[in-house]
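Whether sequence alone determines local backbone shape is best considered at the level of individual chains. For completeness, the protein is quoted in full, as a sequence line and a line of structure tokens:
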Amino acid sequence: MLYATASQTVGPYLHIGLSGLDCADLTAEAPALAGERIVIEGRVLDARGEPVPDGMVEIWQANPAGRYRHPDDAREGAELALVPGFTGFGRVPTQPDGSFRFVTVKPGAVPGPDGRPQAPHIVVSLFMRGLLKHLTTRLYFPDEAQANASDWVLSQVPAERRQTLVAQPAGAGKLQWQVVLQGEDETVFFSI
């Protein structure tokens, strides 16, 4: 006889065993990394607009040449485009006010499912108490209007909700992006 597995949330004990893997500055170990350095700051907010103080935000991205440090990126010349020290992966806990901050570089375009280039983007995963499964979304760049308009994934999102995936300029080299879990202006999350 099979029994149902007990359900557990992905938190609130995110710091146990994971804090040693935190990486807020994806460029720190890659002094030879070229490209536009950026700071992404934001907050994770619940349905009432209250901060989520005990979550974790992970990002995964291509490098400025549009290459991932991953065996599945087997495109010709992928190894030549990799930069020592840049993994494209970052992880930070949210602060008591729900804030998070990453230092990275703007990623290059990568091929989409139809073979055409996708708009530069960063894949974002969120973990927090009360979730049975982490949430996954994307962050797009405000200075890529033409690429965003033709992006295969972004075009699957209803037009009136796309702005939830596009960061806002917040000064030289800085972007601001809020993650809203539910309600008005809820961030679009993907089912993967």
In short: The chain has two helices and eight strands. The first strand starts at residue 37 and ends at 45.
